[in-house]
Design goal:
The chain is an alpha+beta fold. About 30% of the residues lie in helices and about 20% in strands. The strands form 2 sheets. Strands 3, 4, 5, 6, 7 and 8 form a 6-stranded antiparallel sheet that branches. A two-stranded antiparallel ribbon has the order 1-2. A hairpin with a 2-residue loop joins strand 5 and strand 6. Helix 5 packs across helix 6.
Length: about 200
């Protein structure tokens, strides 16, 4: 049986497959669709913060459910659900399972805190003893590129596809998700420090 426990502020969702029959490479598409529908409906009914969000939850189903037909493994399904949950830009929600390519959870698994200040991605906090600090990044630096991509472009590409209107909260949340990276990802960050530029 496939279990994925999702935590939300004030709410806990138990998300499980209704069947224990596994296909050779995992569950069948019908079983993945059943799990997806269960998750989507649970949030539709019980998520308390839609009135504060700019997410079109109906659009989430329209975009992501058809992608299940291309999925054949649990890892691919987990990756799809991770994208679905990012549409809510809520740090209190995450799966209790992950894969080698899962995004790092913010803030518990990130070492860079950054914010948009005057349309620039500015580092406002660095976690001591973690890779960003060891590389020499520090508050006040401006992030220019992430893995070779201009930071503004990287944020736009990562931003939820069902966001009705992207405000400062969403842009800042997405910036921090980009900088947190993925578990199997090597990060390259280009920065400006006063009048000098560098890369770590």
């Amino acid at each position: 049986m496939l279990f994925a426990l999702l935590f939300c502020a004030l709410l806990t969702f138990n998300f499980l497959s209704y069947s224990i029959a596994f296909a050779q490479n995992g569950l069948t598409s019908d079983q993945y669709e059943g799990d997806f529908d269960f998750l989507w409906a649970a949030f539709r009914t019980d998520y308390a913060y839609f009135d504060e969000k700019r997410t079109d939850w109906d659009r989430v189903k329209e975009i992501f459910r058809p992608q299940i037909r291309t999925i054949s493994t649990k890892s691919e399904f987990v990756a799809l659900l991770e994208k679905v949950l990012e549409e809510l830009y809520d740090d209190h929600i995450h799966l209790n399972t992950h894969t080698a390519s899962s995004p790092n959870i913010v803030p518990s698994r990130t070492d860079i805190w950054a914010e948009w200040i005057d349309d620039k991605a500015i580092v406002t906090g660095i976690r001591p003893g973690f890779p960003a600090a060891a590389a020499g990044l520090r508050p006040g630096m401006e992030i220019l590129r992430f893995n070779g991509v201009p930071i503004g472009e990287a944020v736009r590409e990562r931003m939820g596809r069902t966001i009705v209107q992207a405000g400062d909260e969403i842009k800042g949340w997405t910036l921090r998700k980009v900088l947190a990276g993925y578990r199997n990802q090597t990060r390259t960050i280009e920065y400006r420090d006063r009048d000098e530029t560098g890369r770590v």
